[in-house]
Design goal:
Radius of gyration: 22 Å
Order of helices and strands: EHEHHEHEHHEHEHEHEEHEHEEHH
Oligomer: single chain
Strand content: 15-25%
CATH architecture of the largest domain: 3-Layer(aba) Sandwich
Structural class: alpha/beta
Largest sheet: 6 strands, parallel
Shape: globular
CATH topology of the largest domain: Rossmann fold
CATH class of the largest domain: Alpha Beta
Number of strands: 12
Strand order of the largest sheet: 2-1-3-4-5-6
Number of domains: 2
CATH superfamily of the largest domain: Glycogen Phosphorylase B
């Protein structure tokens, strides 16, 4: 007798097969569902070139004239167009459930009897004034974004977040039913977890190897990471820093800093390079100013790499102090990061515990 598998509609406007979509989270969640839950149909990608072009033009003009942003990706017209497109796609096959990660605009106005499971790393309310892109929003833009978020929560059978920070916002800002909101930490976006033997045999050397992994130097706290490198070397600890995913401003230059501007996880050779970087590092340092969660912390943990970050947003949902890293207060500076890293690096029992 064969087991009946659930038929799942994976509803996103992105190309789920592309590991760059939502930092690979869409791809790896889809694969996990295929392995463990049932049959998965990808309803994306869906592009709205004209609407997005028009939205960019409007946003550009508003910034020039009023110094205000218009978030066209969370506009009512875009959400309503998505609803029509996905409604047609859902009629092509019988589904048991809809899984919609980071797809609030796509499902806010979707009318269907199929249960919707909505997953995100934050809410729109949390983003306003927190991330640079969501700062200085036009009032009507913020209003539309919040309406889309509220409709999405109401429209969903289950609402999943990886942190209490995000879940509390859904309950407090959008009055979501507590019974439908659940906190489920995300996992690492990797093809295959390294063997335990490989991680347990990993040893420090006399060199402290720091890894800064992020595409936004400013928001991720690149300057603090750089100054931490300088302070550790000045204190007598031979330290190097690998910056991966972005190019720092020219003024941040050091003989012990190596820059890898971009790694494409879709490319097998570059993916192996990414794995080796994690294996050959001692700490992930990310003094981020704004972070919804940080799957990068999960990836670091999978490779036995402790994370040192600031306690902001949903970071403490991914890092447990003393277990897979440490979070420092938001106002921490390079002195604080250097002091903590030096103390852990010099104490083998503390580092390996």
């Amino acid at each position: 007798m064969t087991e009946n598998k659930l038929k799942i509609a994976f509803l996103t406007s992105t190309d789920v097969r592309d590991k760059r979509a939502w930092s690979g989270t869409h791809y790896y969640m889809a694969k996990a569902l295929e392995r463990n839950v049932g049959e998965v149909d990808y309803l994306g990608p869906v592009s709205l070139p004209f609407l997005f072009f028009l939205g960019k033009v409007i946003s550009f003009l508003l910034q020039k004239i009023f110094n205000k942003r218009f978030d066209y990706t969370h506009s009512l017209i875009v959400a309503k167009v998505y609803a029509k497109i996905f409604s047609k796609k859902l009629k092509e096959k019988n589904y048991d459930l809809i899984f919609a990660p980071a797809s609030s605009s796509e499902i806010a106005f979707l009318k269907t009897k199929i249960p919707i499971i909505y997953l995100s790393d934050t809410t729109y309310a949390n983003m306003i004034g927190y991330y640079p892109y969501y700062s200085n929003l036009l009032k009507t833009s913020a209003k539309q974004g919040n309406e889309i978020e509220k409709r999405t929560i109401v429209n969903s059978k289950l609402v999943l977040f990886p942190s209490e920070w995000a879940a509390n916002s859904a309950i407090n800002d959008y009055h979501a039913e507590k019974s439908k909101v659940h906190v489920i930490p995300f996992g690492a976006n990797i093809d295959e977890a390294p063997k335990n033997d490989l991680i347990s045999q990993k040893k420090k050397t006399d060199k402290c190897r720091l890894l800064f992994l992020g595409v936004e130097w400013e928001r991720k706290g690149g300057e603090i990471a750089f100054n931490t490198l300088v302070k550790l070397n000045n204190s007598g600890i031979n330290t190097e820093l690998i910056v991966c995913g972005c190019i720092p401003p020219k003024k941040f230059s050091h003989q012990k800093m190596k820059v890898i501007p971009f790694i494409n996880k879709n490319n097998k050779e570059q993916y192996r390079q990414f794995e080796q970087i994690l294996l050959n590092s001692d700490f992930l340092i990310l003094p981020t100013k704004a972070e919804c969660y940080g799957v990068v912390f999960c990836e670091a943990s999978a490779y036995g790499l402790p994370s040192i970050a600031t306690n902001t947003g949903g970071v403490n949902g991914a890092i447990i102090n003393g277990v897979n890293g440490f979070v420092l207060p938001q106002n921490s500076n390079a002195d604080d990061f250097a002091k903590l890293i030096a103390a852990i690096f010099r104490d083998d029992e503390r580092y390996y515990s």
